[in-house]
Each structure stands twice: as structure tokens, then as C-alpha cells.
Amino acid sequence: MGTPDFAATILRSVAAWEGGSVVAAYAQPDRPAGRGHKLREPDVKVAARELDIPVFQPRNFREQEDRDTLAALQPDVLVVAAYGLILPQSVLDIPRLGAFNVHASLLPRHRGAAPIQRAIMEGDEISGVTIMRMEKGLDTGPILLQQALSLEKDETAGSLFDLLAEHGAKLMVGALGMIAEGRAAFVPQNEELASYAAKIAPQEEYPDWKESAEKIHAHIRGITPFPGAKTLFRRADGENFSLRLAPGEIAEEEAARRCAGLAPGTVADFDGRGLLVACGEGAYRLTRLKPAGKQEMSAADFFNGRLRTVTMPCGMLETPPDMQGA
């Protein structure tokens, strides 16, 4: 049971495991995506089709018919990874040996919907993956296996997503072997260490330039590539336009001096390597960005095309008024 590519990676590994067989795959319903809002099939559905595995896509499990369909499969276990639906106890009770989740954090830290993004946004130096037995609470079940991984200083949510999917797939196969052989030993989570990784809110896509350059760098990396960092550029001559931001660099002390005394969010200079932006503490160098309706480009190309004729400091990066406090 899963929906995005993270879960598809788990599915492929479990399907290749010789200790059992995947009798069905569950994914969320197809959703509109892209500019044309055409229905997009979840990655798990695509992978299941390639593996010749039947796919079910209930909106939820409130209907008795959906629960009966699952029960008719007579599953020994449910393997759950980034499904995006909360499974009621009536579903968790169906598999003979239980339901087991691949969670992309070292539980009990970062329970919830966005553990990968929050780990980077909060400056964690270590992340990891957990195999837990599911129960009624949100990611509160006892732990079977965990694997810790050190985070690189320029790690993004995208790179960590791929890494944890790979390790989570291997860990789940190992867990299934332990469960099948009756040697799985579970350890309760320490509630005193629990934290919650809430879903990324729309206003969080806009960095708060009043924060330090270090926090801004972590924030942008944590929402790259999805949902992506954005900002509104209010140019000094009055033109406004939206930008998407790729992770840049924390400006070194000498470069940050060019931003001294400027309001946070002020685009102070172009130093040949990128646009220097004043932060609440220090300065941040934007090296790549994407204007609305354009391809992603280097800061140099953006400067030459939009800013060369504007006196420095050339403008402000802001959160749009309609997003503030959203």
C-alpha cells in the first residue's frame, strides 16, 4: 500500500523477495496533475502494472465493500509506505500477521506526513528509516528495525527521498523475513522523544528572509524539488514577478558585508557567482532560479536579462500579501 515513487521502490523490492508473493497493490486514486490537469496514475500503480500485480484504488476504507475486497485477498501482512491514507483499525486487523510501515525517519522523531522535508528544514545531521508495526495512532507503533544515515551538508529532500527509499526497501525485505520466521522483536517508542512532521503548508514555500542564511539554506533544500521554494521579486523600478528558487549558497563573510544594514530580503548585488540577498543574519547567494513561464536559468543569465539596468540594491524578495499568514 503506497502512492509515490518512494513506495514504488518498496514494492519492487518486496515483489522480488523469494519468501512470499505480492497478491495486490493499493494506491490512492488517480489525480489531476500538470498544466492540463490530466489524470496522473500514482507511481505504485505504474510499477504494479509492470509487475503484473492487481491494483486497487479506494478513496478510503469507509465502505464495507472495500474492506471486504481486501479481506478476500487473505493477506498475511500489509506493507505500507507513503500511502497517504489513514488506515482504520478495521483494516489493520485484516492481515493475519499485521500491518507494517516503512517510515522515512528515525521514529519517534518526525512522525507524520513530511518527515523527509522536516529533517532537512530543521537542520538534522542524521536521518534514517524505520520499520514499525502499525496501530491506531499516527506512526506510534512499536519498532522492529531502524537504520540511521548521516545527512550531507547540501542534502535536498529529493536526494534524501531516493536514499531512504533504497534503504527502506532493503530493510522491509529483512523485516518480512524476520516476521515470516517468527523472530521479530518489537520495541515500544519513547513518547518523550516524539516530534511531529506536519505537511508543508503553502506559505512555507516562501522563505522568510528575516531568518539566518543557514536556516534559509536548510529551508530551501528541505522543499526541493517538491513543493519547491518560491518568492516574489519586487524590483526597485516597480516591476514585480514570481520566481522559483533552487538551493544556493550561504554567502561567505566578505560577501555578506555587502548586505550589511540592508533590510532582510534585499537583493543587494550580483557578485559574478550569484545574487546576494540580505538575511536576518548573514547573506544568501542565489545561483539558479526560474522566472514564471521560463526555464530554470543561472543567476548570471537572470541578472543580464532582467537586472543589469537596475541600480543596486535592485529590489526585494518577499512573500506575496495573499500568502502571508495563510
Walkthrough of the structure:
By secondary structure, the chain is α+β, with helices and mostly antiparallel strands. Helices cover 27% and strands 23% of the residues. It is built from nine helices and 17 strands. The strands form four sheets. The protein has a nine-stranded antiparallel beta sheet. Strands 5-6-7-8 form a four-stranded mixed beta sheet. The longest helix is centred in the middle third of the chain and has 24 residues, at 157-180. It starts with a helix and ends in an 8-residue tail after the last strand. The mean pLDDT is 95.
Shape: elongated
Query: Termini separation (Å)?
Result: 32 Å
Overall number of strands: 17
Q: Output the strand order for the largest sheet.
A: 11-14-13-12-17-9-10-15-16
Helix content: 25-40%
The chain-level structural class is: alpha+beta
| Overall average residue pLDDT | 95
Radius of gyration: 23 Å
Question: How does the major sheet shape up?
Answer: 9 strands, antiparallel
Summarize the model shown.
By secondary structure, the protein is of the alpha+beta class.
SSE order and pairing:
Layout: H1 5-16, E1 25-26, E2 31-33, E3 38-40, H2 43-50, E4 55-56, H3 64-72, E5 77-80, H4 89-92, E6 98-103, H5 115-121, E7 126-133, E8 143-150, H6 157-180, H7 213-222, E9 229-235, E10 240-245, E11 249-250, H8 253-256, E12 266-270, E13 275-278, E14 283-286, E15 288-291, E16 297-298, H9 299-307, E17 315-318
Parallel strand pairs: 1-4, 5-6
Antiparallel strand pairs: 2-3, 6-7, 7-8, 9-10, 9-17, 10-15, 11-14, 12-13, 12-17, 13-14, 15-16
